[in-house]
Amino acid sequence: MYLHATGISPDVEKLAPYWEEESRVLAELHAEGVVKSLFRLNDRPVVYLILEADDVEDARKQVGRLPFVRKGLLRFEFEPVEKLI
Q1: What would the pLDDT profile of 37-78 be if each residue is shown by its tens digit?
Q2: What is the pTM of this model?
Q3: What value does the mean pLDDT take over residues 16-29?
Q4: Rounded to a whole number, what is the distance in angstroms from the first to the last CA of the chain?
Q5: Contacts of 38 by beta carbon, 8 Å cutoff, 6+ apart
Q6: How far is residue 78's CA from residue 20's CA, in Å, rounded to a whole number?
Q7: Helix, strand or coil for residue 57?
Q8: At a CB cut-off of 8 Å and minimum separation 6, what does 37 contact?
Q9: Residue 8: strand, helix, or coil
């Protein structure tokens, strides 16, 4: 199933020490086909992911591999979506 995930970071100043590992894990998730697309808003600390997972819990588990998420620095809300094309 496909999901749209909205991630918000309440304290972006705390992200810096984890950027390298975050980038590595994101690349892994993309290579595994979990993260299909990643977008960032330019004016706010918000990211959007398009994911493919078995269900919402699987998506949470996969996104939970990200250091920002593990450290509580980025929180996601997940919504199942239907692929039209």
Answers
A1: 999 999 888 999 999 999 999 999 999 999 999 999 999 999
A2: 0.89
A3: 96
A4: 14
A5: 26, 30, 47, 48, 49, 50
A6: 25
A7: helix
A8: 48, 49, 50
A9: strand
Sole residue written with tokens 């595994």? 32
* Two structure tokens written together for 81: 């979506």
* Edge-to-edge strand list for the sheet holding 2-8: 35-40, 46-52, 2-8, 75-81
DSSP state of 1: -
CB atoms within 10 A of CB 5: 21
Residues 51 and 35: beta-carbon distance below 8 Å: yes
Cβ atoms of 37 and 29 closer than 8 Å: no
The Cα–Cα gap between 9 and 42 comes to: 13
Collapse the DSSP code of 23 into the 3-class scheme (helix H, G, I; strand E, B; otherwise coil) and give the result: helix
